[in-house]
Design a protein that fits this description.
- 44% of the residues are buried.
- The protein has 767 residues and is an alpha/beta fold.
- The strands form 8 sheets. A 10-stranded mixed sheet has the order 19-20-18-21-17-16-40-22-31-39, with helices on both faces.
- It has 26 helices and 40 strands.
- The radius of gyration is 31 Å and the shape is elongated.
- It has 5 domains: 92 residues, MurE/MurF, N-terminal domain (Udp-n-acetylmuramoylalanyl-d-glutamate--2,6- Diaminopimelate Ligase, Chain: A, domain 1); 171 residues, UDP-N-acetylmuramoyl-L-alanine:D-glutamate ligase (3-Layer(aba) Sandwich), CATH 3.40.1190; 111 residues, Protein-Tyrosine Phosphatase, Chain A; 228 residues, Alanine racemase (TIM Barrel, Alpha-Beta Barrel); 125 residues, Lyase, Ornithine Decarboxylase, Chain A, domain 1, CATH 2.40.37.
- The longest helix is centred in the C-terminal third of the chain and has 20 residues.
- It starts with a strand and ends with a strand.
Length: 767
């Protein structure tokens, strides 16, 4: 925000008394001295709340350079000889007058957004849609209160073409005040929940109060779901949730609202579809990671409302399975909502209050607990209080500043894209081998099991055991198994792949010893990869063995592996298909029951001309990685790799940096040290400028050799970078494909090489 008003102008607008000689130009509005850095051109609001009187902070603001104050008390001017005081009857009301005046200066579309939940995410997503072709001003963060709305309106400037302003209320008679300031020309109503219902006589009264925002709006957009609540308003455009889209119902409703408003403002359909694939997540929203002592941690510091709490508890319940569920909220947040409504919600999720667990926090749990955190616990930290955020950081398992972030929303979107490539009857086996390609098998396996898939594939038996212990009940196929894992296969109902006669005989002996019959197995054929599997010459022996063991085993599927699926020339793959057909036909003739056939991996599934059979195995394609350009455009990156700047230093001509002194400076330059190295998976091949990272959207090449735990990167001139600034290793600026190319390898190796010492943070945005 940068405004341009003089103290005298503000005095005239607010009908206040200007105390001071001369005048002073104002560029900023301040209301918290802790946020004032240089106050020379700031105006300080001396606001009064039940807990503080802003007039008490005049000295602190003055010491930081502030010289103009909006007050409603008498101030001794002599104490501040060069200051200006604008004395009004009420500081908040004067701010509202000023904000309304500022709003009236602009004849542009102003979109007012209200509702019980979803205001901020709709605002941020709508900003993403509109900013592709328009200059857009918007409320910062979740600024939607009596103060926040006023501050937000000053974001509008002469270059603004559209403004997005949130409006939130908690009591009667508040929305009329906001409406006079915002004066929206377009309205969006996101949802109606129970937030602040205790302050109203009925839900209908709450609804009528919210709808006052749209008093003079020619157009108001809402969803069919909300419109069915008989809104007392006649200018509604009802929008149905996206039918052919992924995500929850709430997410699809929010996207539909954004696209309807964007289309109304002239954004064409291709642009809408492209933007839909690029919608950002909101930070600190349902971030799921490993906690201390092998616990699981969910940090949801996005907002604090009863509806938001309900959605967070629902998410926790969906991932916790048999774990003890624990809710931690800050005492101050606990006091903001109705105890009756909170108790009703806690009862629904079977959570009981725990005593004397944490100071300044309220703790609720599904079972009696002694200390936090520990194995077998799923902890939800909910609320935007800084101590909640700090607790979430303290309770993470590792303190490594470099971490891997995974978008579960994008994973679900990609799964849907792959599904749409397949014939309707073709099933999907999601491969999560090698710890889900180096990500984290448990959380991703659990999430995928809740999607529309029929099978999960793992590399080794112990991976399948881990998934079973998390409560996953989907069929699990293990690709590489031997006699050491047979007992676990039986105990945990994991289905092994059989690729040799010796292996089949060993399994048969184990089954007979346990008295187990018709145990499910998967037969692997070698059709051209020439790794594991039965060759065509071995088919007579396989058929004889299957006939001999038909009481103890049941063939669930027969499969093979493509050797050259990403090659545009499909001639070798076609040979494999023909061989696979010949070999499976012999098994089909032998068995008196049907079995599933699967040959295609991600790359094979991407080719329309290739036969998909009964099931396909999608692995790395779920993460948005494919050589198929058309399909790649539809997929979303799931994995981001991030770090921070540890230190910024200067190198002078003739000085060297790093082991081996392989880089010598021929000029002065600034460089940053980043805590990531080859022990984390940042290959040493990326040394000496062959690789790099992005800081503040600028490419920074490596200097010298990559170290085990850190790299040094050159900083661009004129860019202010300091310790603590975020670093993107993989993300919007540098895809995993680009990093892999620079490292002379493939995305598979980059993903599987990501060290487990780096925390995995799982993001699933809900509203």
């Amino acid at each position: 925000m940068r405004i341009k008003y003089t103290a005298r102008e503000i005095s005239n607008i607010t009908k206040g008394e200007l105390i001071g000689t001369g005048d002073r130009l104002i560029h900023f509005i301040a209301y918290d001295t802790r946020r004032v850095i240089a106050g020379e051109n700031a105006l300080f609001l001396c606001l009064k709340t039940p807990n503080r009187n802003g007039h008490s902070f005049i000295d602190a603001a003055y010491d930081k350079g502030v010289r103009v104050f909006l007050v409603d008390e008498t101030i001794e001017k002599e104490t501040y000889p060069d200051a200006f005081f604008i004395r009004v009857a009420n500081v908040m009301e004067a701010l509202h007058q000023w904000a309304a005046y500022h709003r009236q200066k602009f004849s542009i579309p102003v979109i007012g957004i209200t509702g019980s939940a979803g205001k901020t995410i709709v605002k941020e997503w709508l900003y993403t849609y509109l900013s592709t072709s328009k200059t857009v001003a918007r409320s910062p963060k979740s600024y939607n209160s009596q103060l926040g709305v006023a501050i937000s309106l000053f974001e509008i400037n002469p270059q603004t073409e559209v403004a997005l302003i949130e409006a939130g209320i908690s009591k009667p008679n508040e929305m009329a005040i906001l409406q006079k300031m915002i004066q929206p020309t377009i309205g969006i109503f996101t949802s109606l929940g129970d937030n602040h219902l205790e302050n109203f006589n009925s839900k209908q009264e709450l609804l009528r109060e919210k709808m006052l925002l749209f008093l003079n709006c020619p157009q108001v957009f809402t969803t069919q779901l909300i419109a069915n609540n008989e809104l007392p308003y006649s200018k509604l455009v009802t929008v149905s949730p996206l039918a052919q889209s992924d995500g929850s119902l709430i997410e699809r409703m929010n996207i539909a609202l954004c696209e309807a408003v964007s289309a109304f403002l002239g954004i064409d359909k291709p642009s809408l579809l492209q933007t839909r694939m690029e919608l950002p997540k909101l930070s600190l929203r349902l971030e799921t990671t490993l906690g201390l002592n092998k616990s699981k941690l969910v940090l949801d510091a996005y907002n604090w409302t009863l509806d938001g709490l309900e959605q967070a508890l629902s998410y926790q319940a969906s991932i916790a399975e048999k774990s003890i569920r624990i809710l931690v909220i800050h005492q101050s947040d606990f006091e903001k909502i109705s105890e009756v409504q909170l108790n009703r919600l806690l009862k629904r999720f079977s959570l009981q209050p725990m005593e004397d667990i944490l100071v300044r926090f309220k703790v609720f749990a599904s079972e009696n607990i002694g200390f936090l955190p520990r194995e077998g616990q799923n902890l939800l930290l909910k609320g935007s209080h800084p101590e909640i955020i700090r607790l979430g950081l303290d309770w993470r398992e590792r303190k490594h500043q470099t971490f891997v972030e995974l978008s579960l929303n994008n994973l679900a979107r990609n799964l849907k894209v792959w599904s749409e490539q397949l014939p309707e009857q073709t099933k999907i086996l999601a491969m999560v081998k090698a710890s889900s390609y180096g990500t984290e098998i448990g959380q991703l396996g659990l999430f995928l099991s809740q999607q529309n898939i029929q099978y999960i594939g793992v590399a080794y038996v112990d991976e399948g055991v881990e998934l079973r212990k998390m409560g996953i009940r989907l069929p699990i196929m293990v690709m590489n198994s031997d006699s050491s894992g047979w007992n676990d296969c039986l105990h945990y109902e994991i289905e092994p792949s059989i690729y040799s006669i010796h292996q089949l005989e060993e399994l048969n002996r184990t089954l007979l010893a346990h008295g187990t019959f018709h145990f499910p197995i998967h037969i692997k054929l070698d059709t051209g990869m020439h790794r594991l599997g039965f060759t065509e010459n071995e088919m007579p022996a396989l058929l004889a063995a299957l006939k001999k063991t038909h009481h103890s085993i049941h063939v669930k599927s027969v499969f093979s592996h493509l050797a050259d699926a990403d090659n545009p020339d499909t001639s070798y793959t076609v040979q494999q298909i023909e061989l696979f057909d010949r070999m499976t036909a012999q098994i089909e003739e032998l068995l008196d029951y049907p079995f599933t056939r699967h040959l295609m991996n991600s790359e094979g599934s991407a080719k329309e001309e290739l036969k998909k059979y009964d099931m396909v195995r999608i692995g790395i394609g779920l993460y948005g990685i494919t050589s198929n350009a058309e399909l790649h455009a539809k997929l979303n990156p799931v994995l981001s790799w991030k770090s921070v700047v540890s230190q910024v230093k200067r190198l002078y001509p003739g000085e060297t940096v790093g082991y081996g002194r392989t880089f010598k400076a021929d000029k002065e330059l600034n460089y940053a040290v980043v805590p990531v190295g080859y022990a984390d998976g940042f290959s040493r091949i990326l040394s000496q400028g062959k690789g790099g990272v992005y800081i503040k959207n600028h490419y920074c090449r490596t200097l010298g050799n990559v170290c085990m735990d850190m790299i040094m990167v050159e900083l661009p001139k004129g860019i202010d970078i300091m310790a603590g600034d975020p670093v993107e290793i993989i993300g919007p600026n540098q895809s995993i494909e680009v990093l892999a190319k620079n490292a002379a390898t493939i995305p598979y190796e980059i993903m599987t090489g990501l060290s487990q010492r780096m925390p995995r943070i799982f993001i699933q945005g809900e509203d």
